[in-house]
Amino acid sequence: MASKAFRKPLPLQALLIFFLVVWVVMAAFPFLWTVWGSFKVEGDFFSKADWANAIFGTRTRAETGDLFTGQGYYGAWVQEEFWRAALNTLIVCAATVMISLTFGTLGAYALSRSTYRYAFWFLIIALIFRAMPPITLVSGYLPVFFDWNLWGHLPTAIIVLVAINQPFTLWMLHSFFNNIPKDLDESAMVDGCTRFQAFRHVIVPVMWPGVITTALFSFLLAYNDFAITALVLSKENQTMVPKIASFLGTTQTKGNVMFAVAAVVSVTAPLFVMIMFFQRQIVSGLTAGAVKG
Amino acid sequence: MKHKSFFWFVLPSSIAMLLFIFFPILSVLLQSVFTEHEQVIKEVRNCGPFGCQTTTSIDQEATAALREAEPLGRFVGLGVYFDRGHLALSEVSQLWRESAGLGAFFDRLLNLPFYKAIAFTLTYTFVVTPLTIVLGFVIAVAVNSAARAIRGPLIFVSLLPFIITPLVGSLVLFWMLDARGIIGSAMQVLADDPDLSVKASTPLMWTMLMVYGVWHSAPFAFIVYYAGLQTVNQDTLEAAMVDGASRWERIRYVVIPHLLPITTFIALIQLMDNFRVFEPIVSFSAQAHATSLSWAIYNDLSGETRQLSSAAATSFLTIIGVAILLSPVIVRTYRDFTRK
Predict the structure, then answer these.
(1) Which residue of A106, A224, A230 is in closest CB contact with B13?
(2) Does domain B118-339 correspond to CATH entry 1.10.3720.10?
(3) Confidence of residue A41 (pLDDT cuts 50, 70, 90)
(4) Which CATH number covers residue A230?
(5) Measured distance CA(B48)–CA(A216) in Å, rounded
(6) Can you give the pLDDT at residue B6?
(7) Which chain A residues touch B315 with a CB distance below 8 Å?
(8) What are the sequence ranges of the domains in chain B?
(9) What interface predicted TM-score (ipTM) does this complex get?
(10) Any A CB within 8 A of B294 CB
């Protein structure tokens, strides 16, 4: 900001600040509104009488005698057994991230070190796979999964998510490995390591920043997925996101839309914490492919 | 790297992609040209005291046996692609003959499920992508001019709509847009129409789905542009200023050329992601007003009877759509690589 070249005229500065305020409200307000509203009764969150009821909780006070109520959370987590879905999500995400990173680091390392043409074609095919909407593959899975009795189980969803994750993981880790100097592993090999030993003892210790960033995005892909988990998992094994979708179908008619609101807040909370701790890695991951290339 | 060690390193990843991406594509293609066997009809002659009657009934055993023997069903070639649920060739040609003008033709064309889905998908893709890029760019410029101390929190808040689960993010927005929600009631007051409801109006529903789309993906464009702005060459900027370039000229001739490759990257990712628009339609329960190709596949596959071959045909048409959309990019990547 020191240089005069970057000082802006006052009206422009004011316009930018105004715009920034509008954007911050647009980005944050829906979440604040929903978190606040999730502790109210339905009559307040969807208020026919007065929108301000959602803020002051008029009906919540009338119905429960208190300003806040945990009814929505109780209904979702205990009555509708949302905890089961949360547990399934935990299993699916943890397994997907671990397996796809194991496969991905091995593959991406080889792709970044190979000088042959087929490595390039491998990446192009991965890019094409990345471009295809995952839901187009589901009708290819279903008959086989039904025939072999694989449909509905968590491991099936995990391995499908791992495969769908691979193209992205390979591309991202490939660009990270390209930044690790080749001399490192090559000098290890001159000293008598095999390729795998060089990878294991020289590359693995220095690859963690890239791997953690990629892990965050693999996690997001598994956590946010709806298309695959909704169609491949049976009702008992549902993860959180399809479970919320099923709330919309069944409980909304019973007047329990607040269950869904509470569940939505519960799903958002871990993401919130994740951005708080890993903001730097998320930003660097989003820009990895773009700015360097 | 030696061929042999390359092979072993990429093996796990390749097997996963081969089994769960490549083979399923073949399976989708195969299923889309077969359809379920029709039920076997048998004729039974009942002869009673009043003469003989021929009745037809479904032969359950024979049907089951046939389905068992040929699980893929019967071969129909491109039949599924041309039926009413997909390209609807005969319906389209009939409409073409009967409709008075082009407007009437398109009106009725959009009643056919596949054309309805593709119309929304394409509109969504080509409206949301440029708006995302523009909004992302403006946010990036604004954040870049903010004081350094508040940039961290600004980025944190901006990331929220992008990181949030799409189904959940669109639900959060949809509840606010509900006629009894805060934005919904605000719109009713502003439009002075107490019956205004997003659920009841097609243009409003389309608009809101696209508003969600821009809200959801603008942060991505923002982050990428913001990072790009950090790497603009400061010396070039100052040199341009010494040479008497105005603010606009500095942006036009220094900043924009620097950001152009980044824009291509954002556009590519956004085209890919917007073409698969799906979750907001589920959250908004918008199917009466807007459907997308992904939603059509989901609709075929969920529910009691899974219409596999219909879903497979839509899937394959979607894959063709993605291929057309991305062909310029693939060609460019290839040229870039061969030039190196």
Answers:
(1) A106
(2) yes
(3) confident
(4) 1.10.3720.10
(5) 76
(6) 92
(7) 135-140
(8) 118-339
(9) 0.90
(10) yes
